[in-house]
Amino acid sequence: MRFLLSPEQRQFAATLHELLGGADTAAAARAWAAGEHERGLKLWRALADVGVFALLVGEEHGGLGAGPVDLVVACEALGYHAVPGPVAESAAVAPALLTGDRLTALAEGDLVATVVAPPEVPLALDADVAGVVLDLTGAELAAEPGPVRSIDPPRRLFRVTAAAGRAGGPAFDRGVLAVAAQLLGAGQWLLDTSVAYAKQRKQYGRAIGEYQAIKHLLADVATRLELARPLLHGAAVAGDTFTRDVSAAKVMAGEAANLAARTALQVHGAIGYTAEHDLGLRLTKVRALAGAWGTGSFHRARVLR
Question: Is the dihedral of CA 18, 22, 28, 29 positive or negative?
Fold first, then answer.
């Protein structure tokens, strides 16, 4: 067995990076945080055109009938570029809950879906732009007006009416897998950006990346990300059969991304604290995603059981 992405999956990842690299996702995320969704929805439709939201939808509903590994490839790229919106909810969870024409609309990018799964996912992400708010039973819920304050401004959270579905089951694990992939992608962006900055930022006549202390910090991040990646892909290969693997991947991806965030802030120094620098978008994103679809404590307990 070859534990490598297929040529088609690598090409899919390259297509997404090319699309998102030229789309100014940072500007879309900042506008999304202000409640201005036009730019983000345009990006959402472009992602639908290349099949992101059709991956887990069956071919009979206009989807691609792909699998969790393809989902991980897509969500890692979306996490790398800090794409706003309910990515995990629409791409990973909703395909298991919707039926009929709504499933087709989801695959085509005409429907944005968001999902709650209390107690681990008590608030609906971007309910103000979603066409449907669901719990894990597939029941449709109503969202209260006005977002709840979020540590990550582009993640606009809303309270909903009582939900029946509880955390757990295949649909929940797909959400966990997607968030873990986003975390790994965000961590990789933080590492790549920090390495590039360390090469061009100079102190005492030398690039700071030439100093041993900086090299060690960045090497530690690279190691943690590379150790998390096979766990993530292993969980995707396991599919819906191993909750333990999905939880382990979430824990490791969260820890690696958190280390990448702390290190990036150290390497960048004061510029990393400014609102104008794109680093801030990933710092808050990582902090929010680390607790999304289950905290580290929740997933460690699942592994233990």
Answer: positive
